[in-house]
Amino acid sequence: MPNNSHSPSRRAVTAGLLAIVAAAALPRTAAALTVDQAKELIDKAVGDVNRIINSGKSQNAMYPEFEKVFTRYADVPTIARSALGPAARSASKGQLSAFTKAYQGYLSRKYGRRFREFIGGKIEVNDARAIKSYYEVISTAYLQGEAPFDLRWHVSDKSGKNLFFNIIIEGVNMLASERTEIGALLDQRGGDLDRLINDLKAL
């Protein structure tokens, strides 16, 4: 299937889904993280996601479940504000709230459309370390039909608990990529944030 601006590559989609899985598996105290503990927890989280994938439900019925996973384990307000970029500074509180809600649904559908491709895959945790004010978990992802690739999750407790706020996949900053995409969508709408919020609900 050819790629277009609204169809993320399989690798990008992989990054989004595995980021959510890995964040779900992180312990409350990142400093105590070990490779074995992280692998055990991530394997369990992958099993939970696979149960959703193999539930027999339609993709549309799975989207709300996937969104629940995202909102539980991701620092959604931070991710949304970063994706919105400079426009976040001039947005009202109400607009930021509406954008965050619309954006989390958009991301859940964007990645959820492809999650059946992850059946049979696995991730292995290699290391974990503290970097400045956040933690990085270094892993390798193995998917059917794909060469193994490097995944690095950035986790912070600034929200009051450990949540992921970014992922680096083979050196590519996913948060920066999302900011570029959302910026382009906003530009296409003449900078009209309310219009973007409304349109994200349908994308």
What is the secondary structure topology, with strand pairs?
Layout lengths: L9 H16 L9 H19 L5 H15 L2 H9 L2 H4 L2 H20 L9 E10 L2 E9 L6 E8 L6 E7 L2 E2 H15 L4 H8 L3
Helix pairs in contact: 1-2, 1-3, 3-6, 4-6, 4-7, 6-8
Question: How would you describe this structure to a colleague?
Answer:
It is a single chain. With 203 residues, this protein is of the alpha+beta class. It is built from 8 helices and 5 strands. A 5-stranded antiparallel beta sheet has the order 1-2-3-4-5. Strand 1 and strand 2 form a beta hairpin. Helix 1 (10-25) packs across helix 3 (59-73), helix 3 packs across helix 6 and helix 6 packs parallel to helix 8 (193-200). The longest helix has 20 residues, at 93-112. The two termini are 18 Å apart. 31% of the residues are buried. Mean pLDDT is 78; it is low at 22-35.
**What pattern of helices and strands is seen along the backbone?**
HHHHHHEEEEEHH
Gyration radius, in Å: 17 Å
Report the end-to-end length measured between terminal Cα atoms: 18 Å
Helix fraction by DSSP (H/I, runs of at least 4):
40-55%
Helix count, DSSP H or I runs of 4 or more residues: 8
How would a textbook summarize the main sheet?
5 strands, antiparallel
Q: SS-based structural class?
A: alpha+beta
For the largest beta sheet, what order do the strands appear in spatially?
1-2-3-4-5
Estimate the strand proportion: 15-25%
